[in-house]
Amino acid sequence: MLSERLCHKKVLVVLDNVDHISQLEALARATNWFKLGSRIIITTRDEQLLKAHGVDLIHNVNLLTNAEDITLFNRYAFGTVLLFKGYENLSLEVKDELEWRDALKRLKRIPLKETLEKLELSYIALEDDYKEIFLDVACGLKDMFKEDAIRIFESCGFHARIGLRVLEEKSLITSSSMFLHMHDHLQEMGRNIVRRLHPDYPRRHSRLFIHEGIEDVLANNLGTEATKSIIISEELRPEIIMRGLGKMKELSDMCYGSEYCWITVDWKFNQVSQYFPKALRYLCWRAYPYNYLPKTFQANNLVVLDMSLSGIVELWKGEQKVLNKLRILDLGFTKLRTLDLGMAPNLERSLSFIKLLESVEVLDLNDLSLWEFPDLIVDLRELKFSKNNIEELPSSIGSLDLSSCRDLKSLPVSLCSLQHLRHLNLKECAIEELPEELGNATNYSNV
């Protein structure tokens, strides 16, 4: 009926806020429904819906600039683009300044219901696992490296790549080639979904992100197994944090501090920290003040470990643990003296942080699948590097274990003049000829 009436007329049709393909099937099934020259404009939050219907031209609407924001606000609030003076007193006739400030504080914690209902339409239509991914991004993983987030989601059993793609198509997230992004309003909407289930009981929230609630839960040891992720403010002291984690048995994501924080001068914990939940998959504690990880922390599920800028000298005191699931590691600017990366055979991220380890003396890279040698610190005393695919070595090393490096073809001539080199293990290497200068070296005690 509709097609018969419009096929002989040039028309402009605007289908606004489409959320299901059945709407397009009913109102604009095919181009021959409309006369040549007609224009059909469809607005939707779901890009996949447009692709499924065969829409030719898809345009992503950019966010307004700050100037455009103000112009739009003035037009709707005051009926004019240019705001003239004199409205300040008028606004105070309805509410005084303290009431306005109180209203703003409330909006930061409890957004307007009408606004949330509109934003939640896309969220409500998601499958349950995609909802969980969205809430994780909103409550902790926003602005994270995209590949890091994917590894964390995959370790939880989610199909992360397709899940993030669905969220992006529904305009719930945006992503560059490296990072995950989310609009502030959508982030607040996601956090409100978590918060409103138990508004007066933060300890029951699946994700904790409000400082006051977190401080109360940790300081009073009110944690429960309901908590899956937590973002901790730098204002909380470490002993309060460690004491409060004891009951959070299912905690999988924990983030403390920012990239700008440093070890607080009055934190002096030359000891082992107390407890980390074994369920942790993402542990980010920059400026970690303790010297070691807890002995009880097996870290079998750990995928991402970031303890840069910290006082840690060794991961575990007097022992090593195999971390088969660990994919991303950052220990830059720490006080590490010994580092065995053979305990994490599946590392994926570049080991560029190694050059930032100013105190490390012993470095074990055994069994890592490295093709390119990472930059090293100058004071490295001992390097273990057996069973690797490395083809070239840097000349700034003190002690080498290169056993079973079957692709190692040559040694740098400068290696022969290293003053501190004492031990060199070349068993089962592919080296056919040693440098002539090696015969003149007098500092070797064991080759």
From TrEMBL:
The biological processes this protein is annotated with in GO are:
defense response
NB-ARC domain mapped to chain residues: 2-78
SMART domains from the xrefs?
LRR_TYP
Q: Which UniProt keywords apply?
A: Leucine-rich repeat, Repeat
Taxonomic superkingdom: Eukaryota
Gene3D superfamilies noted in UniProt: P-loop containing nucleotide triphosphate hydrolases, Ribonuclease Inhibitor
Q: Pfam family example for this protein?
A: WHD_ROQ1
InterPro entries xref list: Disease_R_plants (IPR044974), Leu-rich_rpt_typical-subtyp (IPR003591), LRR_dom_sf (IPR032675), NB-ARC (IPR002182), P-loop_NTPase (IPR027417), WH_DNA-bd_sf (IPR036390), WHD_ROQ1-like (IPR058192)
One GO molecular-function annotation for this sequence?
Answer: ADP binding
Question: Ranges for the Disease resistance protein Roq1-like winged-helix domain?
Answer: 129-196
For this entry, the protein name equals: NB-ARC domain-containing protein
Q: Which organism is it from?
A: Lactuca saligna (Willowleaf lettuce)
